[in-house]
Amino acid sequence: MALTINQFHRSAQGYTEPLLTVAGDIPLHMVLIPSGKFTMGSPDLEPKRRAAEGPPHEVTVPSFFLGRYPVTQAQWRAVAALPEIKQSLASAPAHFHGNNHPVEKVSWHDATEFCTRLAQHTGRPYRLPSEAEWEYACRAGTTTPFYFGNTLTDELANYDADASVVYANGPPGKCRQKTTPVNYFDYANRFGISDMHGNVCEWCADHGHKNYNSAPTNGSAWIKNGDSSERVIRGGAWLYRPAYCRSALRFNWLSEDSKYFIGFRVSCDAPKTQ
What we know:
Elements: E1 14-21, E2 24-33, E3 36-40, E4 57-61, E5 64-67, H1 73-80, H2 108-122, E6 126-127, H3 131-139, E7 201-208, E8 227-234, E9 250-254, E10 262-263, E11 267-269
Parallel strand pairs: 7-10
Antiparallel strand pairs: 1-2, 2-5, 3-4, 5-11, 6-11, 7-8, 8-9
């Protein structure tokens, strides 16, 4: 059977936040994610499903803005140079270097400080996305394991595509063994969001929970009754097998930890309409 890959026409709305540096403007592209409902989690028969991805439940998500890409190293340096609010930030924490590569080796606390500095500098309410917002934006109306369809190829995303770990009869490929620039593939989903499968895992605002029992259904971050020492990471990374890059895959990770496969992207509240 021929491999079918979903590709979408980009018609996203949003804005560009200019991050001013001595070298000039560094744009931060923010995409408007429309409000809507979706089923969060994976169905029982999805291959390689984990118990933490259930039970599936309907969530209503208000509109918000989300970064088109993970935060890059150039963007990180620009914000890290802003005045400290709660903690210091290293100017160049990443293991794999490149202005347009995602920043990594940043803890959840580092990512939160980035958002807080950016919010104070711009006057806009920047923050980390909730886990529900992240999955809703990633799926963009799809119900398949990936927004591309039922599987991945190494021409679509940066992950471990070795023949021994292919997913759902996907073709084997290579593990690049490092991050790629955030626009290396640039296959956006229906909402206009890119690079959500693989490359770097992304911090979310939520505390760690074992499953979705009693999870909120309004799109907000899940803080109540969770493990406050952990936060959720999403999306998989360059060293992860494809099953760990699915839209529904979720891990709890120590919020103080920083690894060379964990980055983040920023979100921002959309103006309320009457």
